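[scheduler] slot 2 assigned
[scheduler] job type: sequence-to-structure, two independent chains
[scheduler] chain ordering preserved from manifest
[runner] begin chain α
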Amino acid sequence: MNIFGTILIIIALWSTTIQ
């Protein structure tokens, strides 16, 4: 599992949700 990649995806989705 690539935890770092998953975290990046979560941050990206979170950023789009805030905007």
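[runner] end chain α
[runner] begin chain β
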Amino acid sequence: MTMGETEAQPAHIPGKTEYATVTFANIDVSYYFRLDGGGQDFGQDYLRAVRTLPTKPKRVFEWCSGPAFIGFSMLAHGLCDSLCLADVNPEAVEACRYTVKKNNLGDRVSVYHSDNLDGIPKSEKWDLVVSNPPHSGTNRIIREWGNNPLIYMDNEWQLHRRFWRRVKQNLNPSGVVLIQENSNLSRVSDFSRMIENNGMRIAFVGDLGPPYSEVAIYYIGAVREEDASTMRGIGLAQQW
């Protein structure tokens, strides 16, 4: 188990199928097993990575949140003050909202049912964006793994393209976008043009730390173009 985590336990919700529950510090996160794309496993490396940033982010957005294992864990461990969560899957959104209600987090967490960033108001402003998004730009992983395509599939990287086209509008000055990608399924060059064509710059690329060092996941960190000269190479060891 990862830091701050307990074994998943079923939680009965009247009139619905059972949620499982995983606890991060003082927050009980409700989810369906089919919604877990790795957020409660290697996604927990964010607890290490975010601590390397020069300032604590006040408001964090988890893109493609699923049940928001990453965001709720960060909030539970005091790595941010408030959260914004969004997912296109209504099951994931329902689970997030249940977690918010169950833990009395309504004044600290906003949840959006949104197709990418389309349903999020431009008034939402974030200091940090995190995500374990779909990692495959083809349908190969679906045929081999037979799992939920909303978790793993991003056809020709269209989801990523739309994200990078919009995210700068919601990013505070000196804000950071820190995304987990899969080195077996992508290269940094797959994303560099879509990042740089939308007023952003890659500031760093880095691997996960122990105990996830051998996992084929890496970080891409990006900042606004106007912040690039002061933010380049911060935090993670491997500079772009």
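[runner] end chain β
[qc] chain β: The beta strands are 9-11, 19-24, 27-31, 59-62, 82-87, 109-113, 126-131, 171-182, 200-207, 217-224.
[scheduler] slot 2 released
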